[in-house]
Amino acid sequence: FDSSRVPTIDATGTLNFGRHSVTVSSTQAALMRLLIDRFGDVVHRAEFGQCSDLRTVAENRNSLDLHIMRLRRRLLPVHLSIRTVWGQGYMLENAVPAGTAPLTNAV
């Protein structure tokens, strides 16, 4: 991966990717830290439960799914997506394929 194309998140919960940024909740920030550490690779569901900040979220499958759903919406403006890898977990990836420009609202 090109290191300039890997998202970052700071202590205040501001997620940066390219020229875009968005602020996320503390729970979403904890989820994102795991996903960013493994950007482009699968993070297994069990790994979320091993993180002390996420233990209560990951105990309930529906709770984790709900947090992921909300986080997916928050990531749209920064051109990131969380893909479900069925039977395994989730993968954070660039929502815009390399070599293509994101759609804009230019007139």
Characterization of the model:
The protein is of the alpha+beta class and 107 residues long. Helices cover 36% and strands 23% of the residues. The chain is built from four helices and six strands. It has helices at residues 26-37, 45-50, 55-59, 61-75, and strands spanning 8-9, 14-17, 20-23, 42-44, 80-85, 89-94. A three-stranded antiparallel β-sheet has the order 1-2-3, covered by helices on one side. The longest helix has 15 residues, at 61-75. It is globular, with a radius of gyration of 14 Å.
Name some characteristics of this structure:
6 strands; three-stranded antiparallel β-sheet; globular; 4 helices; single chain; 107 residues; alpha+beta
Q: What's a concise summary of this model?
A:
The protein has 107 residues and is of the alpha+beta class. The chain contains 4 helices and 6 strands; from the N terminus they run βββαβαααββ.
Report the count of strand segments.
Answer: 6
Q: Tell me roughly what share of residues is in helical segments.
A: 25-40%
Could you tell me the mean pLDDT? Answer: 84
Helix-strand string: EEEHEHHHEE
**Shape assignment:** globular
What topology emerges from the helices and strands here?
Elements: E1 8-9, E2 14-17, E3 20-23, H1 26-37, E4 42-44, H2 45-50, H3 55-59, H4 61-75, E5 80-85, E6 89-94
Antiparallel strand pairs: 1-2, 2-3, 4-6, 5-6
